[in-house]
Amino acid sequence: MTARYCDAGALELGAGLEVLLGAVLEACPPGDEVEVAVASRAVALELPGWARVAGHEVIGEREEAPAGRRWLVRVRRGPTARVLAQPLPEPGPPAILRSGQLRTADWREGIRDVPEAADPGGGFVPLGAVAEAGGPAYGWNLNRREQLWSDDLAQLTEGAAATQWDATRDVPWDEAGPLPDFLERAVCQVVTFIAQNEYAAYYVPARFMAAVNPEFTEVLMWLASHVHDEARHVEVFTKRALVNGVRAYAFASAERSLHSLLEEPDFSASALLLNVLGEGSFVDLLEFVSTHAPDAATAAAARLAHRDELRHVHFGVTHVRQLLERDPPAKEKLVAAAEARAARLVDLSGMSQAVLEALTILAAGSLQPAQVSEGAAAVRDLMRRLAENRVGRLLEAGFDEPTARHVSDMHTPNLM
Amino acid sequence: MADHARPLLVGAVAYHPRVVTVWEGFREYFRDAGLEVDYVLFSNYERLVDALLDGVVDLGWNTNTAYVSAEARLEGKALVLGMRDVDAGYATVLVARAGDPLTGLRDLVGETLALGSRDSGHAAILPLHFLGADGVPIDEVRLLRFDTDVGKHGDTGDSERRVVRAVAEGLARAGAIGDATWAQLRAERFPEADGLQVAWRSPTYYHCCFTARPDLDPELARRWLDLLLGMSYDDPSLRHSMDLEGVKRWLPGDKVGYRVLTRAMREQGYLPASPVE
To answer: Residue A267: exposed, middle, or buried by beta-carbon count in 10 A (0-12, 13-18, 19+)?
Structure first.
């Protein structure tokens, strides 16, 4: 058999010779022979032990004439593959770039589509990579596309990454007051209520993060951005409450509502209850706060959070709509989830009076009767918009009108 | 299910916690293939050989010195029931500092030679034998012994690392270790291996093997060996255990490669005087 020739220069084991031989032998079919030229007898002497451990075999060695020059060691490639997988495929076309950007929506192109179902035991295999056999079996709980997917995920995740903000520096904290005492108390109560709700918006997606099959990488990216957004919302509204030293209540009624949100085990039902209904309501609430805020810091915090909530609502609406399109009977499950939550919250009648009063004072900016009257009108208007928009989002999510009204009516008076 | 009331019991030495992983994996393989196999771990090879001879275990996963002891006590009638691909063609290498003109054992006269644990075939018993076979009077070589693996027959590699360190530090002119150990130390970039070179390589011999008493049911022995040789390194459920055991392919094994160690152990008083070969 003619052998390939490999000049190893002055390399020795531990200094790169094993790397060179590994690469050369890996490229050979089993049984092929490689003649390796090494610099000394000492290197020739250490190769048989290496070859045996690496699954190859040294079948001869001789000193190259004239004596004292190089040594030639013949190595036969062993039968085993180092990696327990199919050989890597030939390189495919390069990824699509648009204006120099590699967009997430394009990254599956020519590789693999989003699967309808993924192996619940599958591991962490980056898109395009070839999985080696023999890894431990995982037990993912969310493995079907329809349970998780929304066609806008790539854009939504990119939008989240592109519009990150900083609750420490992007809010003009030095413009948070001073406000009259009654007004500062009202603002503190409103932002404390919002922060309290944002905790739930954090925990609901966070509970699903570790259950999603890693094959749905876009979903992982989305949930990570969602949770990150909510952590920052908790941060920014907490900071607003703290900034002037005034304190407010975290109400038990809100807690009961939020607790029931965390009890929902289904991903899609949670998307309906949290993203469509809860965060949908918060879009309207935050818009109200940013419009009527008596100080620039509160207005900025509400405006920044509002931008994030729009994305979260968009995800929920698209996910639910696509689920209902693919699997119409899923409607029953979603409605049942809303009914079950409403049954748990049956004793919750109307939004907390203290929060309504705080919103009214916030909008009034004064305790003068005329301004208070305007504030009360603004809150009434908010309540009307909340109800209208809730139905609108449910219609957009694919529910028929009677169902949309039924689900909207059952929604928690706590807003989230 | 096996047609035996008792599973085939394999004894092995727990020289490292990974031995448990290895044998859990192998046991499952044999059981899935219909042969009930279980394992018992011992703290040293002497106890394993005693257990094999006393009938506590049916098979011993022995180092070469443990095998030779068992073989002697069984008067040459032990059964060899498999070895790793790496066990055939094992060698001892002599390592010295780079640039040292030392090329053979005779250059060690008047020098210090570092050796691994005294019960290690490849790092102590065989190097001494090869010295004698090359005509080097043992009393003209100073021995620097590192007896840190005694009972494990050098399986932890600890004493061999100390040998390499001693040579690197100039405490010994050369050191004797297994060629596979040397390759491993080089591959893991063991700092003291840098700046050393292989000065000499011994003739090859065998290392570990599965040893059984001659009264083992031949049918059971055949099934064991068939399944052992049937293990595939390409089987994902076996690869982890096989990697930990350092085997890519099992060989049936024979006794030819143990002759030199048997002579060496008799010379050095490890075996009874009556020759059994």
So the answer is: buried
